[in-house]
Amino acid sequence: MTLRHTLPAVLAFASMASAVRGDSSPAAEASAAGVTSGNEFGAARAIPSSRSASRDAPGFGLTMAPRGVRTAAGEFGFVAFQGGLTVRPGFYGFLELEGDEEPGFTLWPSQQIHFWRGAYALQVAVALEELGHRLCRRCALEATLRFRHESEHYTGANNGGAGIDYSDRPIFGDAIVVDAAAAFRSGDWLFLTRVTNDFFLPDRSSYGVGPGLDLHLRYTAWRKVHPFVSGYAEYLFGTRRGNLDYPDAYLVRGLLGIAVPNVLGDLMVFASGDVGHRKGLAAYTKEATLGFGVRLAFGPMPEG
Amino acid sequence: MQGDGPPRQRKGARYWHLGLLLFEGCARSLGTESPSTGALLRDCVVSMPAGVAAWTAPATISYPDGALWIFESARLGDGSTAPGAALWLTSADAACAGLADLVRKPDGSPAVLLTLDAAEQSANAARTDGRRLALAPKAGFTDAGRAYLYYDHVLVGPAPFDLQLLGTGFCVLETRDGTCARAVTDSGSTILWLGDELPVRSGFVDAGTAYLLACRQPSSLVGSCTLARVAPGSAGIPAAYEYFDAFHGWVAYRTQATQVLAELAGVSLSFNPFHGRYTVVLTDPFEGKVSLRLTTAFNQPFGDRLPLFTAVAPAADELLDGGAEQTSFRGEGGRVIHVAYAAGSSVARELHLASFRFDEVLQ
After folding, report:
1. Phi and psi for B154 in degrees, rounded to 5?
2. Which in B18, B105, B333, B342 has the greatest CB count within 10 A?
3. B278 vs chain A: nearest CA distance in angstroms?
């Protein structure tokens, strides 16, 4: 692992350790400078993206059907600067392992790992509390800017055997990602929505732009269990990179299930359905799937 | 049709089935896509000339003014076989319009460009093991009006797909309707290279030198190609050949040749002026995918495989063969290329000619 890969994680943990010790932290310095400090280390956003039906949502997840997908992802805020708005610089890390087996149920899909995706991002989330409350008493607004890198890999032979030629597969690469999110509470219902767009860097990706839409609706009347539904749609416009013109890709995905709120966030148990392109090196395959999985989604939900 | 139980039970069973479906999960394929480098303009079937009932994948030789396709044999409408028959094509449009005809003798019968000599024919007639010697044209090039053809000596039979490669032969065709003069070694053999010493599968001339791709299949589903070069005038002399060795450049020792391609595919090597690169067109025999690899010089490795188009996909028990770019037919300075290949069942092969146009110059 290179320094480039480890530096954000080191920064994150250094920030956390500093906060735990209570010594001089960037947040404390900011406070001394007249800026109110909030969560020194923790939530990356006021409106979390971890409940999204996107495959890239930050959480620990295991999909057991139709194929095994294991996800280890997180999004953490280094610090929160609070004033009329809250600014949270943070870090996002993502690792996803997916099988390429015939569709079916696998309780513990540990052996069939073929496709790998890894991503990391540095980001700044700006929560617009005052503007949100001005719109309605129980509303929240937030915008996030991130610089994100994603790469795709696969499991090859450990014994030096022949590899698989994936040289024509799209490269997700580097993108500047902007999103705007809103949360609304009405009675016992909580609704989150997020509009996002990936601006891929020229010659650093097989795509040009990638707009997306995220919706999450949950019923919060019961303290221990929140039924929810999440929907996500993205469209990646292919572009020319090197010698190849890459095709567009899209994915529409939905989750239906229950969330068990806890101190870290939610434990989500859901049925999933999607239509569109697979991810990573399987991106040229289009399919429609039904399946189910579980996820530990990090981050508190916005208060009403 | 009535269900097996009362309505409430049937409804319950449906929920169970839905639950089991989610539990098991399912995925339905909606197709696959691929990146592109251009567009397939046409993929036509070349019509058989009058009097021809069946043919196999030919060796194709590109002349400046057309392409000569030389067959191991063609079956004629009267049930006879024309060994070493050939087809002359002046353009891709003519080939697709059904205007191609066999190369014929003055009396109108098919010309025999490559055939067994009298001794070989006698030996075949004397065999009692169900096998026979055949000459299978594979690849060639032209230079100064002459065509140079490499062919395999193969033992065919007794089963329909039994094939034993004995070696590689070479012949020179002074005129398109003449007989290809087979080179003979000092020991009197027409096998210049034994076994798979030099199974030439593609050749072209660049700056007065013929470059050849020799591709072997050392084991099932494995392909390995090496590069050789020779002055066209010396092509009938095995000792005149040089082989590309990544460490020492061009060497005289065939066994020092470096593998330049590990492709189990039809190969077609040439220089494409549109890209300003040497190109090898690859025709996947299993999936019908036609792709391209480039290099700036032969001492540089070929680049990644770039997709061109998907040919007519072979059926489960069939393969594509004979994939070869027809450099005679190139248009727009090499921006439009034409690739011939054979598809269909082994008893009724169809010869296709696909035309492809590149979007941009490839790097």
Report:
1. -130, 145
2. B342
3. 15
